[in-house]
Give the backbone structure.
Amino acid sequence: MPSASPGRKIAQVKVLKKRVMLIFEGGEKLDVVPSVYADFYLYEGKTLSDKEYKDIQNSNDVGKFKDYAFGLLAVRSYSTKQIIDRLYKKKANPAMISAIVEQLTATGLLNDDEYVADFLEYAKDRHYGQRKIKEELFRDGISEKRISALEFIDGEELDKAMELLPGFLKKYDRYSNRSRHQRIYDAYLNKGFTNAVINKVLNRVPDNDKSLEKEALARDYEKALRLYTRRFKGEKLRTHLVNNLAQKGYNYEDIKWILEEHNHGMDQ
């Protein structure tokens, strides 16, 4: 019969910054995470059986993933789904992930209700509308039941949207009135506000002063002229200019005026 394995004797223990290195007689080395080093009571001179060595390896694999998850949660809150997704990306197997999530949940470090509360504060600071909030929470694995329980007060949603309006007005003040309204609408839509809230805001958006509208028209006319003048002449050039300016939201009377003002630059 073959003799039983004499095991592995630890010749040296090196405590490093984020790991502990075990050096066995014969030169074999094994890095373990600090929690595994403490749990298995490892020290210089201790002899490990094959089973103990394998148990340490398995626990060490779980320990690395556990430390990774703890590190994430030490920085900010995560949903259960987010932690699971990140552990999968790190190549943790389902059994390991289940054990880690169970432990994190039991200790209160992983709590989807707290994640929702933290996310709502984050969303408030960034002026997210209710649609974007619901979509992102659903993406992060929060249940539909939990999301549907959230309350959004119309007045608060409108106040939040109105706080963004001065910035949008400044950002899009160089566009035609119609184009400016559309861009502001799209910006609110991207922030996740509902159509009802957006329309209430747009009803409060004043049209640009007529002189500002004509200044914007003049700028866009010059851009369109540079774009088309080398390729088209006469009526074709006129048609492309009209279409270009109309798509930017200018009304026909103003387009007609700018073309007549610059008629010297166009062939008839």
About this structure: Confidence is low (pLDDT under 50) at residues 264-268.
